[in-house]
Amino acid sequence: MNNQPQLQANLVSMPPRGVRTIAADSRRVQRISALDFTKGALVLIMVLYHWINYFIGPQWGYYQYLRFLTPSFIFITGFMISNVYLSKYAAADPRLAKRLFTRGLKLIAIFAALNLSRIAIIPLLGTGTVARNQFEPGTVFAVFVSGNLPVTGPKLVAFSILVPISYLLMFSGILVLPYRTYRHTFHAVCIVLLLLILGLWMNGAGSYNLEFVTIGMLGVLTGFVPIETINDLVRRPLALAVGYLCYLAGVAAWHVPFPLLVVGVLLSLMAIYLGGVVGGEYGIARREVALLGKYSLLGYISQIAILQILSAGFRRVDLGVATLGLLFTAAFALTVLSVEVVNRARAKSAAADKLYRAVFA
Fold this sequence. Notes:
By secondary structure, the chain is mostly helical. Helix content is 70%, strand content 0%. It has one domain. The longest helix is centred in the N-terminal third of the chain and has 32 residues, at 94-125. The two termini are 23 Å apart.
């Protein structure tokens, strides 16, 4: 197991200073500030993505260049499974499998609760229509099995990123059991998943959920690499820039097939992580981005709620360039503010901290 500094959790934050951690008898974990910065930057890029979705629409022709966003979150989740959990707990510790599996189930519950709320709220806000067939077998299969959701028409579900993340966590909780005796368990399973993707592709089929879980498993394998080695690898900005330009050219030529998606995730994360490594921990803006990374699940959820409200308030307004820019700035600032409010509330109130950990930790 690795002994490098570790990060506490997937898409959620550690308690603020002065708040008790979840396992007092576990080894104390130090955060990787550059990774917090990376997660926070991804959340802010996701604000841009959702702003485009709400105020410009599906006709925008450059969505393919943002395809790296969702799998990047899942890759980081996998990274933290090995870099945090498999280092914080002994492999034989029964709490490890339970913790991973419970976190996955909690994300499924959050996903269900958010979408049930969405069904009730969207008609009231008047920001769109809700598909009427959410509970039909075909929809259930698309959401929870294939992940191949339609890109046009009313959205079947929102927050779909939570489904493959929850699967990755629960699957990893199960794999911890054979990992106790065979330390290449995750490597072997990753190979099997890649072969399944290849088999589906050869038969003209595919599954986004399978692809995302596989990318998460690649993140698990990356988490076994010492953080010092990763830091040295990303400190090659020229090679990274050349690689990214080649990736963009590939997207323009072939769109985003799975192999190119994996390349895009790795290059995008390396580029953002490099900004966190070379920039240190100083500056208000950098600290805010890192704080957002600690609360990335909350930031992800709150930005969608904020954009829904803004979209409802301006749905009858002629949106010029200045108004669109103002709405983006507002969504950006309010997302950061929501995290600040929760962070300060947790620091001042044990009840607020307990509520937060019950939902997100």
